[in-house]
Amino acid sequence: MTALLDQAPAAPAAGDRRPPRRRPRRGRRVALPYLLLLPALVLELLVHLVPMAVGVWMSFRKLTQFYIRNWSAAPHAGFDNYRVMLDFDSAVGRNLLHSFGVTVAFTVLSVGAAWLLGTAAAVLMQSRFRGRGPLRAFFLVPYALPMYAAVITWAFMLQRDTGMVNGLLGRDGPDAPFWLIGGNSFWSLVVVSVWRTWPFAFLIVMAGLQNIPRDLYEAAALDGAGWWRQFRTITQPMLRPVNQVLLLVLFLWTFNDFNTPYVLFGESAPREASLISIHIYQSSFVTWNFGLGSAMSVLLLLFLLLVTAAYLAVTSRRRRIHA
Amino acid sequence: MREPRWVGWARRLVLGVLALFTGLPLYAMAASAVKPLGDVQRDWRWIPSTITFRPFADIWTTIPLGRYFLNSLVVSGAATALSVAIAILAAYAISRFRFPGRRVFSITVLSTQMFPGILFLLPLFLIFVNIGNATGVALYGSRLGLVLTYLTFSLPFAIWMLAGYFDSIPKELDEAALVDGTGPVGALLRVVVPAATPGIVAVAIYSFMTAWGEVLFASVMTDSNTRTLAVGLQEYSTEVQVYWNQVMAASLIVSVPIVAGFLLLQRFLVAGLTAGAVK
C-alpha cells in the first residue's frame, strides 16, 4: 500500500533535482486529503460525536420534561442520575438490573446459536455438492430482507390464535400458549434474533474458509489426516482471526438490539423480554426524563467498552501464544 | 478432501433443518399474502382456501402505504446518493494519501459503528429540536433530518469497503492519468471511480438497505407526514385489529426489490463486507 502521492512530503530531500516552480502545488497536495475527508468528518461529528458528548453532559443534568424546550437551563444534578439508577433497592435500579440480566442472557444465547449455526452451515458447505449455490443464496435471504418485514412476519407467526407456530405445534383453543407476552416472549425474541443474525455469521465464516489455502488440506490428506483431524488442525485454527472479529460484532449488535424487540412487541415490550435499549427508550420517552436515560446510555457505553477491551486483550494474547 | 460417510449425513440433516428454519417465515409471508381475510382470522392454514391478490390492492387504502413508500424512497435514495459520494472522497484520501491523522480518522469513524444507537438518539433528538427552534431549519420531523442521520450510519462501512476496493486498483492507472495532466481529483473521477464501479454499486446497495430497514430513529424523528415504511408498517402491525394478509402483502412488496438486488449483487457485496473481517 504505497501511495503515489506520499512522495510529496519527502520531496525536499531530493529538492535540488526538482524544478522550483512545482513548489506551490505541494501546499495544496498536503491539504487535499483533509479536504476530501471533510464532508465525512463534519457529518460524523454532527450525528455521532457531538451528540455523544452532549449525551454525557445530559447525564449530569436534571433534564426532565420541563426543560426539553430550554435544555441549557436544566439544573446540575451531579451524580444524582447515576445514584438513582444504581440504587438497586429502588424501582428504577431494580428494573435496570433486571433488564441488564435479560440482555446478557439474550445475548449469550443468541450469539452462541447464531455463531454455531453459521459455522456448521459454512463448514458443511465447504465441499461442492449439487444445489450448493442456490442453497447459499437462500440462506442469505433473511440477512437481505428489510428487518421490519421479517420481524413483522414473525409477529404474525407468533400470534396465539391465528399464527403458524401454534398451528405447527397443534395447539389451539383456550389453553394455547401465548408467545408475545409472558415468559415465552423471551424465547420468541431469541429465536427471531437467531433467524436474523445466523446468515451473517454464515457469510463471514464462509469468506474465512475461502481464504484457507487448498494445499494445506492436500498436505494433511497425504499425511493421512482424516476429516475430523483436518477440521481440528486446519479449519479451526485458520478461522480463529475471523471468529475473533465476528463474535465481537455479533455481541455488539445483539447486545444493543433495539429493532427486533421494538417491532415484535411494539411500544411496550413484556418485562421478560425488555432488552436494555428498549428499557432506556421506554424510560426516556415515557417519563421524558432524558437525564436519567442519558445516564443509563453512558453506563451502557462504559460497559461495552470494558467488555470489548477485555475481549480484545484476551483473544489477542491467545492468538499470539498460538501463533 | 475425502469425507467419511457421517459428514454426508450430518450435512443433509443440518442443512435440511436450517433450510426449514429459514423457509418457514418466508413461506408464511408469501402464502398469507395471497389469502382471503377469513383465512388469517382463524386457526393457521397452510394452504390458502382460495388464492387472491386483493390484499396487494387493499393495503394501499388500509394504511397510507403510498405515502410511506414515497418517504422511504426519498429518504433512502438521498441518503444513499450522499453517502456514496462522500464515501468515495474519503476512501480515496485514505487509500491514496499518507497523512497525519489517517489512522485516527479510520478508527474513530469505524468505532462509531459499534456504539449503541440509543446512546445518541436522545441528544440528537434534542439537538435537532433546538436547531429547529433556533434557525427555523426543521430537522426534527423532516426527511432532511432522517437523511443526515441515515447517511452517517452507512458511511463508516462504506468508507472502509471502498478504501479496500480502491487499494486493489493498481496505482499505475492513476499515475498514468496524473502524467496526462489531470489533477488527483481528475484521476479519481476519470480512472478510479470507473474502475471501482462494482464496489460502488455494492456500497450503494448496502447504504440503501441500511436506510430502508431502520426503525429506531425513524420512530422518534418522523411525524405522521414523514413516516417511513418501517415505522408505518410496524405501527399498524401492533394494532389490536390487524388484517394480516394485507400486512404480509405489504411486507412482500417492500422486500422483493431489496432481496432481488442483494442476491443479484451478492458476489460484490459479500466480497466488500468480508474484506475487512478476513484481512
Describe, in plain words, how this protein is organized in 3D.
- The complex is a heterodimer of chains A (323) and B (279).
- With 323 residues, chain A is an all-alpha fold.
- In chain A, helix 5 packs across helix 8, helix 6 (147-157) crosses helix 11 and helix 10 (227-255) packs antiparallel against helix 13 (290-322).
- Residues 1-24 of chain A have low confidence and may be disordered.
- Chain A has a single domain (91-322), classed as MetI-like (MetI-like fold, Orthogonal Bundle), CATH 1.10.3720.10.
- Chain A has helices spanning 7-10, 23-58, 80-86, 91-124, 132-144, 147-157, 164-169, 184-210, 214-222, 227-255, 259-265, 276-287, 290-322.
- The model of chain B has no long low-confidence stretch (mean pLDDT 86).
- In chain B, helix 2 crosses helix 12, helix 9 (197-213) packs across helix 13 and helix 11 (229-237) packs antiparallel against helix 12.
- Chain B has 279 residues and is mainly alpha-helical.
- Chain B is globular, with a radius of gyration of 23 Å.
- Chain B has 13 helices and no strands.
- At the A-B interface, helix 2, helix 4, helix 5, helix 6 and helix 7 of A face helix 1, helix 3, helix 4, helix 5 and helix 6 of B.
In a few lines, what is going on in this structure?
Chain A has 323 residues and is mainly alpha-helical. Chain A is built from 13 helices and no strands.
Flag low-confidence runs of chain B: none
Q: What is the CATH superfamily of the domain at 64-238 in chain B?
A: MetI-like
Oligomer kind: heterodimer
Estimate nothing, just give the exact number of structural domains of chain A: 1
User: Which structural class matches the secondary elements of chain B?
Assistant: mainly alpha
